[in-house]
UniProtKB/TrEMBL annotation:
Record-given protein name: Pyruvate dehydrogenase complex repressor
Record-annotated HTH gntR-type domain positions: 6-76
Transmembrane spans: none
Any Pfam family: GntR
Record's keyword annotation contains Transcription regulation: yes
Record keywords: DNA-binding, Repressor, Transcription, Transcription regulation
SUPFAM superfamilies assigned: GntR ligand-binding domain-like, Winged helix' DNA-binding domain
GO molecular function list: DNA binding; DNA-binding transcription factor activity
PANTHER family given in the database record: PYRUVATE DEHYDROGENASE COMPLEX REPRESSOR, TRANSCRIPTIONAL REGULATOR, GNTR FAMILY
Entry annotated with the keyword Electron transport: no
Function description: Transcriptional repressor for the pyruvate dehydrogenase complex genes aceEF and lpd.
Length: 237
């Protein structure tokens, strides 16, 4: 998706971090060429190079020289639980509620449109990430399978803007949803909810698909709000 304003290095950085963080570019995968990426983002090549230089400094990509050279995605580093708890406590209840409202609007609309517009190949992708969640063995794998399922719904809705909005939301809050604490969401329960949403999309039932997606998002954010309140209460004690 092209940037609204050309020459914004930080926006290119943010979007590349999103796609790498969500696993849209896999470990070891080569990024498109500088000229191709610059064209996709609608920025000058020099801007794209500045963004890639920042990603190299962060250890997200490495650049190899020579005939088969280019920029390649480095192995992912899982964010520590302490940092996730810190991020959550820094967010206010109002921020979480606003995120919930936004996510409900995006996910619900995407699911309804997916039920109307999706094709078999979209259904296969949804099924793939439902299975991936059940097979995941680490927090990062679960988070990525969960995020990719929601992103694929937006893709199935055939909406570039909804897809980008879902990606941004998953990058912002997706990791927090998988904080390992007592009472946290279980992979099995999330997988069942994903299955129900996918079944409604495959059946072509937009009302049910939208309602299930909205309820799924609401439960996830509510758990985060409850967790944040518990953390604050423990700090006061």
């Amino acid at each position: 998706m092209r940037l609204r304003q050309e020459g914004r290095t930080e926006e290119v950085v943010r979007r590349l971090i999103e796609v790498i963080d969500l696993g849209l570019f896999a470990e070891g995968e080569q990024l498109p060429s500088e000229s191709e990426l610059a064209m996709q983002f609608g920025v000058a090549t020099v801007t794209l190079r500045e963004a890639l230089a920042y990603l190299r400094e962060r250890g997200l990509i490495e650049t190899r020289r020579g005939r088969n050279g280019g920029s390649f995605v480095c192995p992912p580093v899982e964010i520590s639980e302490e940092l996730l708890f810190s991020r959550l406590t820094e967010m206010s209840a109002l921020e979480l509620r606003d995120l919930c409202d936004e996510h409900i609007a995006i996910s619900g609309t995407a699911a309804r449109l997916a039920a109307k517009r999706s094709a078999r190949e979209h259904h296969a992708r949804l099924e793939h990430y439902i299975r991936a969640l059940g097979e995941a063995t680490t927090r990062m794998e679960r988070r990525r399978a969960d995020a990719r399922f929601h992103i694929e719904i937006a893709v199935a809705a055939q909406s570039v803007r909804l897809t980008h909005a879902e990606m941004s939301l998953q990058a912002e809050i997706g990791e927090l949803l998988w904080i390992p604490v007592s009472g946290a969401q279980s992979p099995e329960a999330v997988q069942q909810e994903h299955r129900a949403i996918a079944d409604a999309i495959v059946a072509g039932d937009p009302n049910l698909a939208g309602a299930l997606a909205e309820a799924h998002v609401t439960r996830g954010i509510k758990r985060l709000i409850d967790l944040r309140l518990n953390l604050l209460a423990q700090e006061e004690e």
